[in-house]
Design brief:
By secondary structure, this protein is α/β, with parallel strands linked by helices. It has two domains: 3-155, 3-Layer(aba) Sandwich (Lysozyme-like), CATH 3.40.80; 159-229. The chain has helices at 33-40, 100-117, 127-131, 141-155, 182-186, 212-222; strands at residues 3-5, 12-14, 20-25, 51-53, 58-60, 66-68, 85-90, 124-126, 159-160, 162-164, 170-171, 177-179, 194-199, 202-207, 210-211, 226-229. The strands form six sheets. The chain has a six-stranded mixed β-sheet. A hairpin with a 4-residue loop joins strand 4 and strand 5. It is elongated. The two termini are 24 Å apart.
């Protein structure tokens, strides 16, 4: 994940005891992360965010240890304010809508920040939760269905490892036993570190930790050899 740091000396204040990640949308049509970084990097904007995200880029405008001015309109009434949160703005790159690519980039950044600050999913919130402003507005339709989808993706694992079934024994043409052909089986795991496991019932393979998309790819390749993703 490549983040462009374009830190502004304006539109922020000292001190940030980070407990929340607050998700916004810019409300603009066909804007970009860089355009927003340029705009909110100037003096006297009276608002800002830590990060701006579009389909292809993430720009950071305020250091995380400082407060950006992104949800002060709630007056801390709901326990979420500028000085205990990181503000993330999603740009309206898709005719004012939030594209899947922008959402994917946002999910990746949010998960990184969650790991960094030990923030659970309940504390990844909308601007709405901080002030009751309808933001991110593009997620509000059908009783916030897209927001619920966003949160569900945070609950999903982004890494795992493959466990195979017990591997079948091999036999020669005359039906004489040759055992498990590990060299052949491991050819399905190109560039993946594997661990050979065994017990009284047989032999199986467990892989190193892998991105979830790689786990799903291997699941399809392995067919009946596949047992589970852990």
């Amino acid at each position: 994940m490549n983040i462009v740091k374009q830190i502004s000396k304006f539109n922020n204040s000292e001190g940030n005891d980070i407990k929340y990640i607050v998700i916004h949308s810019t409300g603009n049509t066909d804007d970009t992360a860089k355009n927003n970084a340029d705009y909110f990097g100037r003096a006297d904007r009276q608002s800002s965010a830590h990060y701006f995200i579009d389909d292809n880029s993430i720009y950071q405008v305020v250091e995380e240890y400082k407060a950006s001015w992104h949800c002060g309109d709630g007056g801390n009434k709901y326990g979420i304010g500028n000085h205990n949160s990181i503000g993330i703005e999603m740009c309206g790159t898709d005719n004012g809508n939030i594209s899947d690519a922008t959402i994917n980039n946002t999910i990746e950044l949010v998960k990184t920040l969650q790991d960094r600050y030990n923030i659970n999913n309940d504390n990844v919130v909308r601007h709405y939760d901080a002030s009751r402003k309808c933001c991110p507005s593009q997620f509000s339709y059908n009783n916030w269905t897209r927001w619920n989808d966003f949160k569900n993706r945070l609950n999903s694992k982004n890494k795992g490892y493959i466990v195979t079934n017990y591997l079948p024994n091999g036999y020669r043409g005359d039906n004489s036993f040759v055992g498990v052909d590990l060299e052949y089986v491991l050819s399905y795991f190109k560039d993946v570190r594997c661990y050979i496991k065994s017990d009284s019932k047989g032999v199986w393979i467990e892989t190193q930790a892998l991105p979830m998309d790689k786990c799903l790819e291997l699941k399809e390749i392995l067919g009946y050899w596949f047992y589970e993703i852990k």
